Amino acid sequence: MFNLIKKDLIIQKGELLVSVAIIVFYAIFGRQLSPFFIFLVASIFLPLNAYINEEKTKINILWNSLPYTRKEIVTAKYLGAVLFMILSIGAAGIILYIFNYSYTIRDMAIGAGLFFIFAAFTFPLFYILRPGYIGTAIMIGFLVFSFALSFIVPFVTENFTVIIQFLAGFSTLTLYLSGAIIAISLYILSWTVSQFIYQRKVF
Fold it and tell me: Quick check: 115 pLDDT over 60?
């Protein structure tokens, strides 16, 4: 299973440079964006790109001819995605720091949490739907979701005072822990669903 994760790291060498270029672009020209948006883009780019590449090459037929169980194939994808997310957020933090782009640990945490939520809903689609345009549709959906989120959060903060006051009754630690538990639980549930579907998929 480790070799499957290593394979994704090797294949993604070119995309790593693209990912860095995207972060640098946002660091220079995206000063008006919320920092968590940049961390979200950085965290989801490589895992999503790995799925899209495999969708185009229909490589699942090859994986199933190798000495790996289907459970190991899905597990490698989900664990690899978390590894990519951690590395990407770390790299984004360094790049933003170099370009004097102001951010906090909270922005990194929100970006990671949104990664888990977005991945939880999109990764199973690659096992449910037929190959073709899944990756393109999800990439467009991701961009729309990300940009909308960067405007929705400030809007909710300014206009939905009742919700804000309710949440203000909880400590910051409680809110972060609750958000982390929900996001990670959704990711684990998605992982389980993907394994269930992939076990029964015919190639």
Answer: yes
Distance between start and end Cα atoms, the chain: 20
Cα-trace Rg, the chain: 18
**Structure tokens of 180?**
């982390």
Nearest to 123 by CA among 135, 114, 136, 108: 135
> What's the whole-model pTM score?
0.80
Structure confidence by residue, pLDDT tens digits, 149-181: 666 666 666 665 665 566 566 666 777 788 889
Hey, what long-range contacts does 70-75 have (CB within 8 A, 24 or more apart)?
70/195, 70/198, 70/199, 70/201, 71/195, 71/199, 72/1, 72/4, 73/4, 73/198, 74/127, 74/191, 74/194, 74/195, 74/198, 75/1, 75/191, 75/195
